[in-house]
Write a structure and sequence with these properties.
By secondary structure, the protein is α/β, with parallel strands linked by helices. It has twelve helices and 21 strands. α2 packs parallel to α3.
Length: 402
């Protein structure tokens, strides 16, 4: 489905939007719920990724296809590796079969897991024979994806001897790993992280527990962008968000002050307001929040200001090479943009071409990041329904704001 957007003769109205639960929190908790069935979850993400994960966890099929769901691929690889007696082939979309998983597989093999590559070495599909793991020490590189480490952390308390993880090199997206450990703490599981070592104690059961998932901060980023590109005084209220969040992307509240957007924290929501502050942004390191890079770049372009973003090396192995995709699509509008393998540099521009068609590359964040730009120029989003990967009601919620 291609979607034409033109909000140039409109202004956002003061809206109240309920955003679905965090995909990151939900997917971690869904794995933990399988290990501890007396864990009850509320406000679980309705994203495609979480739906794929739920179906996979409930399935008794030998071949499980998780589509584009990268988090599900990583977490399920570890989960099925410790499901004694079960044999599972884990596969995904064509793009998923080009996304590396060798670092996680090698770590699991180091612990005694039985995992084979079905086709290309280092990439899905994977043939996994669940086995009992008694080894309790492993080392893993943390500079490619924190999800590899989180996958190990999630299964660790279910191992009879727990797990000690030695982290090699710098940790990418550190807040996501801290989120995983915090969720274990909420279940009463003992963990420690000192220096480059994480230790998780074994725990066979937990007391009855209900966790309500906070709404997704990555999803909030598109409304931050919408407010930033709007006239002074415009507001949007989003629920359900908290000032003390486990999600790394909650840094949006601070970052978007640079674009004149103030965040008011209410008891169970946030209100975004456009102020008269002149927008400006210097170099920003997004190593802990790379998923909001696309939103920030499009916001800067729409405001006609420059930006220099670093810490973006993981974007090359997402649903698409997001750095190349951003460069390709922004240049259609007249942007001057340069990329390296881990950074992006946008020059200020007064040029804004009309009626461009945005390729989404099967990447939900490409579609949603470019949508607010329709306040400045008419555009068409190709394959617009790709947003369901993380935000099923995005287009309806966007329409309610203008």
């Amino acid at each position: 489905m291609d979607l034409f957007l033109d909000y140039t003769d409109k202004q956002i109205i003061n809206s109240n939007i309920e955003v679905s639960g965090s995909k990151s929190e939900s997917n971690r908790l869904l794995i933990l719920q399988q290990l501890y069935p007396n864990l009850k979850l509320e406000n679980v993400s309705d994203s495609d990724d979480s739906v794929h994960l739920i179906h996979a966890l409930k399935s008794d099929k030998k071949i499980i296809d998780i589509g584009h769901a990268g988090t599900a691929m990583r977490f399920l690889t570890a989960y099925f590796a410790v499901k004694e007696g079960r044999e599972t082939t884990l596969t995904g979309s064509e793009r998923m079969q080009d996304r590396p998983i060798k670092i996680l597989v090698e770590a699991l093999r180091m612990l005694g897991a039985n995992i084979e590559y079905v086709a290309k070495e280092g990439y899905p599909p994977l043939k996994i024979k669940g086995t009992k793991i008694t080894k309790n020490k492993v080392s893993i590189h943390g500079n490619v994806s924190s999800q590899y480490i989180s996958a190990l952390v999630l299964i660790a308390p279910n191992l009879e001897n727990g797990l000690e993880i030695e982290l090699l090199e710098e940790i990418t997206s550190r807040p996501y790993l801290e989120m995983t450990l915090d969720l274990l703490h909420q279940l009463g599981i003992s963990t420690s992280w000192k220096g480059n070592t994480i230790i998780i104690s074994p725990q066979s059961s937990i007391t009855n527990k209900t966790i309500t998932v906070e709404s997704d901060w990555s999803s909030a980023s598109y409304f931050y962008s919408l407010v930033a590109l709007s006239p002074v005084g415009k507001k949007i209220t989003l629920a359900s968000y908290h000032k003390k969040s486990l999600q790394g992307d909650s840094c949006l509240a601070e970052i978007y002050q640079n674009f004149g957007v103030e965040t008011q924290f209410n008891p169970n929501s946030i209100t975004l307001t456009k102020t008269d502050k002149k927008p400006a942004l210097k170099t920003l390191d997004l190593i802990n929040a790379p998923d909001i890079a696309q939103t920030i770049v499009v916001t800067c372009f729409g405001l006609g200001i420059s930006c220099d973003l670093t810490g973006l090396h993981t974007l090359k192995i997402k649903e698409t090479d997001r750095l190349v995709a951003l460069q390709n699509e922004l240049q259609k509008f007249g942007a001057q943009i340069n990329i390296t393998d881990k950074s992006l540099h946008l020059k200020p521009s007064s040029i804004l071409h009309n009626n461009c068609r945005i390729k989404t590359y099967n990447d939900h964040r490409m579609a949603m990041a470019f949508a607010p730009l329709a306040l400045k120029t008419p555009l068409t989003i190709e394959n617009a329904d790709v947003v369901t990967k993380s935000y099923v009601n995005f287009w309806e919620d966007l329409d309610s704001c203008v």
